[in-house]
Amino acid sequence: MKTYIYLAILITLFSCKENKIEVQEKQNVKKIGPPKIDYEIREIGQLYRPEMMQQEEIKNGNGKNNYRYTLTNSDLLDQDLQNIQIHSRKIALNYYNFLIKINSPFNYEKIIVKIVHRNGKIDSFEYSEKEIKEIMP
Predict the structure, then answer these.
(1) What is the mean pLDDT of residues 108-127?
(2) What's the CA gap between 39 and 101, in Å, rounded?
(3) Chain-centroid distance, C-alpha 47
């Protein structure tokens, strides 16, 4: 009989200890959380699914900067090479909308979309302010 009581006490202790650990883990996950990604950048990532995306601000001496957005190893872009310029326009437009949100006032010379393919080929497209306005819906 004593054995059953000791066994019941041990089971209760271990089960209570596990619940405390789970609560702590859940609280830690809520506190840490992933960083918020803007809609435009998330849309580019979801549509093209590249292995890597990079953003760069290239300072010019004239007060206007260039902004480069690089996508590396996207299956969609690698398979649809004949429409690569159409894709680059969509990427440039989404990146432009993102830049307007985070830069006030937004002053730029060019937006550069650089696409690095799995075979090592690199496509680069440059869009001036005038060209961006032309492709805007």
Answers:
(1) 94
(2) 11
(3) 11
Instruction: Kindly write down the DSSP assignment for every residue of 63-130, as one continuous string.
Output: S-EEEEEEEE--HHHHH-GGGHHHHHHHHHHHHHHHHHHH-SS--EEEEEEEEE-TTS-EEEEEEEHH
Of 102 and 91, more confident:
91
Instruction: Provide the angle, in degrees to the nearest 10, between the axes of the packed helices 39-48 and 84-102.
Output: 160
- The residues facing 115 across adjacent strands are 71, 123
| pLDDT tens digits along 3-29 | 656 555 656 655 554 444 444 444 433
Q: Write down the pTM of the prediction.
A: 0.69
For residue 57, give Cα distances in angstroms to 34, 110, 115. 24, 10, 16
DSSP 137: -
